[in-house]
Amino acid sequence: MTYLGIDLGTSGLRALLIGADGAPIGSAEAHYTVATPHPGWSEQDPGHWILALDQAIETLRATHPEFADLRGIGVAGHMHGATLLDSEGAVIRPCILWNDTRSHAEAAHLDAVPRVRELSGNIVFPGFTAPKLAWVVTHEPENFARMAQVLLPAAFLNRYLTGEGVTDMSDAAGTSWLDVGAREWSAELLKVGGMSAAQMPRLVEGCAPAGVLRADLARRWGLGSDVVVAGGAGDNAAAACGIGALEEGQGFVSLGTSGVILAARDGYRPAPETAIHTFCHAVPARWYQMAVMLSATDCLNWLSRVTGAKPAELTSPLGETLAAPGALRFLPYLSGERTPHNDAAMRGGFAGIATSTDRDDMTRAVLEGVAFGLRDGFEGLRATGCAFDQVTAIGGGTGSRYWLKLIATVLNTPLALPKGGEFGAAMGAARLGQIASGGGSVEDVIRPPEIAEVIEPVADLVAAYDDSYHAFRAAYAPMRQAQLGV
């Protein structure tokens, strides 16, 4: 028996096939683009997701005969996206993505409504789904009038696979329509947002069956008629399942395009005033809390574009020995910020540039700025009661040992590096598909990976970086005021 995990990312789709023992068999990828028709807008054609999925499946079928033994499928997707469908199931307009900030005014309005934070457990961020629909009401009323159902990206793929709109609790928690503590759509939140329960997909737990693979797809893919599709998960909950973060004290830091620090929780303890996200986990009776910075490796990618040097060419001259904090400061708010500022309009910048500043200085400052941004989120999680002996580090940014030592020192917490293998969102999605189809229990299937190495904080530099972090924090308000012209 085999199981398929589908990770619907912002820039591409990845399909991972695993065996009954959880070991990877093979994977395939297909890519697509993001449209930015106006500043702050970020959209995608959902039809491209279907084309990418079909391409990835055909690659897996052609290269791995084990695909024919498929028993379960799980989908993970980038959260918060608004995909509007009409009564015939046709897509009305491009999906408004998680990093789209056009609805910042609508988000502020919804966030100020009494009981919205209390019920949803979160600030209403501009990237969430509810303010996007409020924007559509105002700016595209003809599209809102046509809409019969709104689906998150993963739920859109679930509909393609099963014929029914169905989503899991972890993904739904990022809409501002879910009562996150009760794990159900909130009639009050829907009313505030001008929505109805009839426009929502059916809710299931991420590891529960959402349906079976459509008969026509099963025939086209050479499969039987009993392939189970799981509820699936939002991408971060799926990554937590892939890394085995289910219990209190387990968590990870992800150095991807955005930066994430996630902590599994054994109960519901919302703290929206910290700008920490409190979401349902992809398995029953568990939640997770998460701090999100919008630009992590994206800051290094930006410097790469400006200098014409690849990211590895920027970081390799720094070596592996952590230096003391530099005089040059970088604020990493290239696309605004979520945790802790909830500020879509803020932009980043350097402070302290001198005639002696060189490319290495700028690189160090960018790495430090991202590490300090992660520290902001880490402090917010600590304020909710999270405690870590160590956190697992994942994502593309972990390729820089200098950056890993820097982050461990700034957080004053060891970073655990998994032994080579699969442990991301695609693996988590495959595990959910395995559980939903009867291939094992949550505890048996969702296990932490073997740790290859632990990066310890550089003890002699912890105090210096602590001082530098507090200077970084103090720089936010003056730069924000300067941008406002006050």
From TrEMBL:
UniProt catalytic activity: D-xylulose + ATP = D-xylulose 5-phosphate + ADP + H(+)
Annotated Pfam families: FGGY_C, FGGY_N
Domain Carbohydrate kinase FGGY N-terminal: 3-242
Keywords: ATP-binding, Carbohydrate metabolism, Kinase, Nucleotide-binding, Transferase, Xylose metabolism
Site feature (Important for activity) residues: 7
Residues reported to bind substrate: 79-80
MF terms in GO: ATP binding; D-xylulokinase activity
Active site residues of this protein: 235 (proton acceptor)
Residues in Carbohydrate kinase FGGY C-terminal domain copies: 252-436
Keyword Kinase recorded: yes
EC number: 2.7.1.17
Annotated family: Belongs to the FGGY kinase family.
Protein's UniProt name: Xylulose kinase
Lineage: Bacteria, Pseudomonadati, Pseudomonadota, Alphaproteobacteria, Rhodobacterales
